[in-house]
Amino acid sequence: MKPDWRVALLFLGTVRAAREMSELEALYQEGTTPDTTDVDGTKVATLSQPLPQGKPIPRDTWQVDCTSEADGHTCKQSFDGNNSTYWQSLNTTTAQNITINLGKADWNISGLTVVPRQDQQAALIEEHQIFVSTNKEDWTLVAYGTWWPDKSQKLSAFQPQKAQYLRLSASAPNGIAIQDIKIYNSVYIQANPALGAWGPTIDLPLVPVSGAVDVQTGEVVGWSSWGYNIFVEGKSGKTQTTTWNGGKQSVTRRTVDETEHDMFCPGISIDQDGKVIVTGGVDAGQTSIYNTSNHEWYEGGMMNTFRGYQATTTLSDGRIFVIGGSWNGGVGLKNGEVYNPETNAWEKINGAQASKMLTDDQRTYRQDNHAWLFGWTGGSVFQAGPSEMMNWFGTSGSGTTAPAGNRTGDKDAMCGNAVMYEQGKILGFGGSPDYENSEATKYAAIIEIGKVNETAKVTQNAGDGMQYKRTFHSSVVLPDGTVFVHGGQVVGLPFKEDQAQMTPELFTPDPSNSSGGKWTPLLTNTIVRVYHSIALLLQDGTVFTGGGGLCGDCEANHFDGQIYTPAYLLKEDGSPRTRPTINTVSSGPVKAGDTVELTTDSDIKSASIIRYGSTTHTVNTDQRRIAVDLKKADGDGNKYTFLIPGEAGVALPGYYMLFVLNGDGTPSHSKNVHVVA
Ligand SMILES: *[C@@H]1O[C@H](CO)[C@@H](O)[C@H](O)[C@H]1NC(C)=O
Ligand SMILES: *[C@@H]1O[C@H](CO)[C@@H](O)[C@H](O)[C@H]1NC(C)=O
Ligand SMILES: *[C@@H]1O[C@H](CO)[C@@H](O)[C@H](O)[C@H]1NC(C)=O
Ligand SMILES: *[C@@H]1O[C@H](CO)[C@@H](O)[C@H](O)[C@H]1NC(C)=O
Ligand SMILES: *[C@@H]1O[C@H](CO)[C@@H](O)[C@H](O)[C@H]1NC(C)=O
Ligand SMILES: *[C@@H]1O[C@H](CO)[C@@H](O)[C@H](O)[C@H]1NC(C)=O
Ligand SMILES: *[C@@H]1O[C@H](CO)[C@@H](O)[C@H](O)[C@H]1NC(C)=O
Ligand SMILES: *[C@@H]1O[C@H](CO)[C@@H](O)[C@H](O)[C@H]1NC(C)=O
Ligand SMILES: *[C@@H]1O[C@H](CO)[C@@H](O)[C@H](O)[C@H]1NC(C)=O
Ligand SMILES: [Cu+2]
Q1: Which CATH number is 602's domain given?
Q2: Which atom of ligand 1 is nearest to the CA of 42?
Q3: 28 catalytic, yes or no?
Q4: Is 593 found in the same domain as 566?
């Protein structure tokens, strides 16, 4: 580890003075990040991001064209290798383009770097779009988003594209400037729509270590920590957040300090109203709540026990349960407590015992981290991991704990994933015995739960295990009941990218096979997603993957997200399939056992509801898929009904995405179904 001021700050911890915080802040606002790179003899601050895959394309044969040029700052000066020159557009708010002809058609463009003007902080590019083209007429959007406004080197990485032209388009209040631009060439990854498709990349102003999907807008709300590229230990009282809107193709950013909460390494649960309840982390007692009705944050009650790396889940009665979290606020004694949204207060339930779910991690502050929690019937919580031992927690009165059996055949699976892909059926997979420096496993188990306190049924070595060893990976369940798994590493090394897994895979359940299903590799991509990365299912049935890093000058920061489009949305030639459409869904909240009516534009074969997800540190206790039994109504048209499962807690209260699938397995865009306690 490089000795630097950041490490010193980490150890200063909670005693760090406020003055030092403001100094540090000033440093960041100026873009004077600790790591630098040499560009034509100038030390340029970097954000310590891995460069796009491949090598820079030689610039001597480039032909370039800009929409405007300020006096003496020509387009060509953006790549003349002279550190005292730059291209500057006219001082205008209209979008400015720089279009580069790379001279030949067979480049595999994998990304670019952009160095802003270094002599002063001016004409910085924030919002931008990046297109490529083979003919300078048809442009493909490969990346877009917002860069943090400072003088550090900017970067965009995307799935390698065969192209001859690249265009960067950006608008800013006073025009834009570029001192240096480099474009990278890599190896083309053969497109194969049967394995899905990657892109576009969404450039973000911060590393999204945590995120949730807004149940009203479908936006991804992501956040880092106090800083956009770094965290500090000890109270900092604020968080950098970003909001991505896929429909508008917009990325905004906002510092949230109204809840005085550094929401780095928190617990997250989306409650029955769709509010995102974020607990603890760096500011370990705090609760911050994102109100999806007005897109504002407000303060929730303080937890009784201070926590970081805890897990939380919504309960069948609408309250929120939390347990574990010794990464912050002291080691051990992190028993359960519950939050009541009506009183905005927490209450301890010591009978839900964290000591029963400890792993053997050699670092004691890790043993109760990131529990795999599933709210279930009668206010219960099933804990499927990462400890080999599984438990039932009861949340009435002062709480209870009962053993649920062992995930036999597996060991402790720190930073593994657990996904309820169908009511009562959980796929638990990957992870490693210790949190760090420990080899990951391919192991997968199907864990089936029924009545509270009953031993769970475990199908060992599901699908004969994953194709790749993974820890620090992320997963989402898809409308058809398959589970998409992405990223991770062979050995868990926080803030390092060695032995990263670049090929995602899919679990397809098959109850007729004694191994429970099969694993299939999907299309490889080029952006590493390991420690501190996330994945979320979106309303349109695609997947957002993003983040990784947040460690200052560590070379592992990923200020982006990328969209994965599953094969079920693609034709053989890669163009989009025609999707079925949900025309109407019976409105208003529904309860356990209620009937939902819907109409569609075409014949439907199956349907499912998937609870909106939130994720950080491999934990997503919010997502869950309920396979529903679709009945076609008598008479005319495409009118259907289905029932919400009869026992409250199976379909945990909250917002769900309803997807209908046609005979080809193509899902619709979702519509909301709101289940309440
Ligand atoms: C530009 O590069 C030269 C070396 O090529 C270096 O001496 C000089 O300091 C650099 N100028 C700036 C402004 O960094
Ligand atoms: C770099 O640009 C400056 C300003 O135009 C010019 O004076 C200088 O000679 C250039 N340096 C080189 C090495 O071309
Ligand atoms: C800039 O690029 C965008 C995207 O290709 C295009 O729509 C727009 O017309 C271009 N603007 C100009 C002035 O060429
Ligand atoms: C651009 O114009 C604005 C408004 O007239 C002015 O305040 C600003 O200084 C100008 N910026 C540059 C780089 O000339
Ligand atoms: C692009 O990638 C392909 C591999 O798919 C490789 O054969 C080709 O040489 C690459 N082109 C360039 C210019 O590097
Ligand atoms: C959430 O937003 C809605 C809509 O603006 C508002 O009526 C409600 O009071 C907000 N809830 C809280 C707890 O702030
Ligand atoms: C589950 O077991 C615990 C501990 O034995 C017990 O206190 C609790 O009442 C049981 N819950 C149910 C629903 O049976
Ligand atoms: C369950 O796992 C724990 C911890 O690994 C072990 O001590 C215990 O013997 C196991 N129990 C059974 C029945 O396998
Ligand atoms: C059952 O699934 C396993 C794992 O995918 C596979 O190897 C095996 O061939 C399957 N068996 C049958 C009978 O299909
Ligand atoms: Cu963390």
Answers
A1: 2.60.40.10
A2: 14
A3: no
A4: no
pLDDT in tens, 41-61: 999 989 999 999 999 999 999
**For position 558, what pLDDT does the model report?**
98
Report the C-alpha gap between 227 and 255 in whole angstroms. Answer: 9
Alpha carbon distance 364, 233 (integer Å): 18
3-state DSSP of 7-31: HHHHHHHHHCCHHHHHHHHHHHHCC
All residues at 6 or more sequence positions from 459 whose CB lies less than 8 Å from its CB, including other chains: 445, 446, 447, 448, 514, 515, 516
Half-sphere exposure of 251 (CA within 13 A, CB side): 24
Domain boundary among 534, 559, 577: 577
Count of the separate structural domains present in the chain = 3
Dump strand ranges (E) for 320-399.
320-323, 336-340, 345-349, 373-375, 381-383, 389-394
**DSSP SS3 for 355:** helix
DSSP 387: S
Ligand 1, pocket residues at CB < 6 Å: 40-42, 83
- pLDDT for the residue 18: 43
**639 in the same domain as 521:** no
167 lines ligand 3 (CB under 6 A): yes
Q: Mean pLDDT in the chain? A: 94
In the set 531, 568, 655, 656, the catalytic residue is: 531
Structural domain harbouring 151: 54-186
Given this model, what pLDDT does residue 24 score? 58
The pLDDT, as a whole number, for residue 3 is 27
Cite the beta strand spans of 177-319 per DSSP E: 177-178, 180-185, 197-203, 210-213, 220-223, 239-245, 250-256, 267-270, 276-279, 287-291, 296-300, 311-314
Please tell me the pTM assigned to this model.
0.95
**430, 561: one domain:** yes
By three-state DSSP, how is residue 95 classified? coil
Residue 341, amino acid:
P
**Ligand 2 midpoint to CA 84 (Å):** 7
For the stretch 290-312, pLDDT in tens is 999 999 999 999 999 999 999 99
Q: Is the pLDDT of residue 11 over 80?
A: no
Position 348 confidence tier, pLDDT thresholds 50, 70, 90: very high
Q: Are 320 and 307 in contact (CB under 8 A)?
A: no
Residues lining ligand 9, Cβ inside 6 A: 463-464, 513, 515, 518
Report the alpha-carbon distance of residue 292 to residue 257 in Å, rounded.
18
Residue 460, beta-bridge partner list: none
CA atoms of 516 and 520, how far apart (whole Å): 14
3 state DSSP class of 165: strand
- Buried/exposed code over 160-169 (b: 16+ C-beta within 10 A; e: otherwise): bbebbbbbbb
Instruction: State mean pLDDT over 621-637.
Output: 92
